[in-house]
Amino acid sequence: MYITDTALFSHRENFGEDLLALNLQRGRDHGIPGYNKFRQACGLRALSSWSEKPAEYDSDYWKKLKNVYEKVEDIDLFVGAIAEAPVRGGVLGPTFACLIAEQFKRLKQGDRFFYTNINGNGLSSVAKQVKNGLENYESQLKPNLT
């Protein structure tokens, strides 16, 4: 699970850095809560002990985490989330999928020029037309799907 010699660090001759270790350190430097807190925020079951392996994990990886961390509350976000089995149709596990979805939702809501947001800059008519068009399209699809 070591990510080294990536394009991100290719500017250094004969030197690779461990991206996973850098992400761990960044999380700790910025006071990012642990993996368990983010599981809870995403509506996943909170981990309370090592005896309760979550379904998202491979048994071997869970044992390795147990050897590294004293308590389940100590698991770093990046280490915990990167090892989850991907959600159906995705490449990320449920925790990272949830966090990325939340980030994009906030970006969309915070962007007053996003095409579905109605604002005072003359875009309201465009937004209404697009929204009506999408609703019409969805209503036409629904009878065909049943």
Q: How would you characterize this protein structure?
A:
The longest helix is centred in the C-terminal third of the chain and has 22 residues, at 124-145. This protein has 2 domains: 32-110, no CATH class; 112-146. The protein is built from 6 helices and no strands. The N and C termini lie far apart (44 Å). 12% of the residues are buried. It has 146 residues and is mainly alpha-helical. The model is unreliable at 1-5 (pLDDT under 50). The chain has helices at residues 19-29, 35-41, 59-68, 77-82, 94-110, 124-145.
Please describe the topology of this protein.
Layout: H1 19-29, H2 35-41, H3 59-68, H4 77-82, H5 94-110, H6 124-145
What's the short story on this structure?
This protein has 146 residues and is mostly helical. The protein has helices at residues 19-29, 35-41, 59-68, 77-82, 94-110, 124-145.
Query: Count of DSSP helices?
Result: 6
- Arithmetic mean pLDDT: 81
In the residues, how many domains can be counted? 2
| Major sheet details | none
Please give the share of residues in helix.
40-55%
Beta content: under 5%
List keywords for this structure.
mainly alpha, disordered N terminus, single chain, 146 residues
